[in-house]
Specification:
Elements lengths: L2 H18 L6 E2 H10 L6 H13 L4 E4 L5 E4 L6 H13 L5 H12 L4 H9 L14 H14 L1 E10 L5 E3 L6 E11 L2 E8 L4 E6 L3 E10 L9 H9 L7 E8 L3 H8 L4 E4 L4 E8 L3 H8 L5 E5 L1 H17 L1
Antiparallel strand pairs: 1-3, 2-3, 4-5, 4-6, 4-9, 6-7, 7-8, 10-12, 10-13, 11-12
Length: 324
Amino acid sequence: MSDSIMKKRLLYLLKLLSEETDESHAVSTAGIMEYFRSVGLSADRKTLKSDIDLLIEMGYDIVVVRSSPNIYFMGDRVFQIPELKLLIDAVSSSRFITARKSDELIRKLSSLVSRQQALDLNRHVFAANRVKADNESIYYIVDAINDAINDHRKLVFQYTEYTGDKQKVLRNDGERYTLSPYALYWNDDFYYMVGYSDKHGKITAFRVDRLYKVEVTNTEAAAPPDDFDVTDYSRKIFEMFDGEEEVVELACENSLMKYVVDRFGEDVDTRKETDSTFIASVNVAVSPTFYGWVFQFRGKIRIVSPQTAIDEYKEMAKEASLTS
């Protein structure tokens, strides 16, 4: 038997086991023989055993159940079903990924299991009324950003925004921005590029899905400051810590502890105030972003110190009521 026929038989055997079998859907010796005949190949029990042993030796988890006849199925795979469900849910619900690309990625993820398992996975895919991105070139943009970061090169790009009548336009009449990219950062279901902006003269962030005509230049990127930390930067920009930090005490109803922990982390400093309330001491920049977060709880979270923060919050609430 020629090597090419043997290789072909091994590939077809692996294809059958990978695509059609799992712990709930095994194939018998007779079933494998019939499959070989359907693709123009032949084998006997001895060569089948040799092929199975070789695949197992190569690291494939092929389970052989000794019976009359023997049955076979693919055991462990790269991902287990619960892991794939998590990944598929993330892809399906992500606003960053377009609807078409979500479907494509889900099909690819589903191909990592048997056909029957893939059908079961697809039945579980559900994302209610999710707003999805419409920028199909976003994946090439992310690739370009990664190349620029790895090669320490500057990027040039245009940036989009919306007019009052919901028309997408280029910001500043199509101005080309130049940035030394340092990192990609995921926040609140959006992807951001973080780096040093030549125009702004500081580190800033741009929404990746709003980038347009991204090009990697041959110009060496500016090195990040020695004390730059993307996690610290993200806290300042995205999590109400932008500016001079200050300790603020908040009186909160007990039922809101989950929101305080979600926002400030499990190590947030809290103490009991009454049977129904607690005090949280948090480090924040007392800014409109922070006040807006407090305001959404409509009095169930109150600022109790410092007095300057109380006064500023009341003034902002007063201005909001006057303009509403």
